[in-house]
Known about the structure:
The protein has 98 residues and is mainly beta. It has one domain: Thrombin, subunit H (Beta Barrel), CATH 2.40.10. Helices cover 7% and strands 58% of the residues. Strand 3 and strand 4 (44-49) form a beta hairpin. It is globular and about 45 Å long.
Amino acid sequence: MALDALFTDGNIGVDAVYTADGGAPVLVRAVLRRADEITGFGDARLWSETTRIDLRVAEVPAPRPGDRVEIAGEGFLIQGEPVRDRERLVWTVDLRPV
């Protein structure tokens, strides 16, 4: 119930359209995170913007790289392998703009 409360909260969750590669679009709720990331490369530190979202496993059972997510008219593709949380209730996926 707590997880549902977070995703349905208008201050935290957002509406998104998830489309599996070759599948039909599905309306889902997502928690959007756009954090900056610092990556070390030798002695250099590289700054980059990231876009990650959390999706409920109950709504999106098997996201894959190449699947599409649209949030507020902005299109993204899932890149890399999605990761589930310890309780296996939430996927965290990295996105890149299309």
